[in-house]
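Quick question: who can interpret this fold?

. . .
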Amino acid sequence: MVKIRLEPQDEYMHALEEASNFNESMYFNCYDPNERVGGFLRLGNRANEKYAELTTCMYLPDGRVAFVFKRPEIANNDAFDAGGTKFEVVTPFEELRTTYTGKVCLLDEPKQMADPRKAFTENPWEECEVEWTHYGISPMYGGEPVNDDGTPLASDASGFAKGHYEQHMRVNGRIRVGSDEWEVNGFGLRDHSWGPRHWSAPWYYRWLTANFGDDFGFVVSVITGRDGRRHMGGMVLRDGEYEHIEHAEISTDWSDDLYHQSLRATARTSKGEYAITGKVINLIPLRHRRTSPDGEALMTRISEGMTEWTCDAVDHPGYGLSEYLDQIIDDQPVGLEG
């Protein structure tokens, strides 16, 4: 029998496993609707491969995106501290601090990142500082599946994560890009994952995150495998409690260049059904390339859309990310009709 384990110690680093693709990562997003600024930070330690995956992405009020991805060298999995990014746990499940100090590429046209080599070469670079403090406004969602006696399950080296949890947050701090600076007083979501990871493991997924304030938000997750089977999940935050999503459907409007530009979703919990719409404010496409063990060239696209949300349960808009991951076959996302 399998159960989910989550303890305060899981906020810290986990033991490095033998799998060459072992990954431990934290991710934080935030948006301040008054300043119309926000973004996300991610650091994924791949200590067996001797590097971390670092992403800083800031959506600026004038439509530009400040972005950097790099793979700083690391020697171990002792901390989230590499390449100018640092994550610190102040109080487990309650307060965390995140910082980035370094350069970012400033994109007038964020979709240029579909060709990162060209985008990084042809656009200016600026110094950037991000300092955020995150305060939990919700329970924890998720954890690590373990046997009924608490012993860990065997890791699947072909998978996407062994343990994973999420939490809605209130966020305060600042963002500086070049000579421009913004105070941030907004909301966001964070997650923490550990275990073997290949970005090409899902065939495609849709991950929708939203905050409408202290007392309402959601995460809608639909993951589709190569065999067509779907896993639906997520939660609705309402009045300080999570309602687990039992079923979800997403319908997408695509732009001419095949990026999601708006969407409609329904999410059903034991307490009712929620109707959700999303309009993408700004979008940047990211990509990951690898070669499979049998020599197949794989290309994964992750389209990150800062999104304005509406929901029939709330009388004002919310904000967050709509993340669309697709394997790209013949220059098209495989989830185009999904």
Summary: The mean pLDDT is 94.
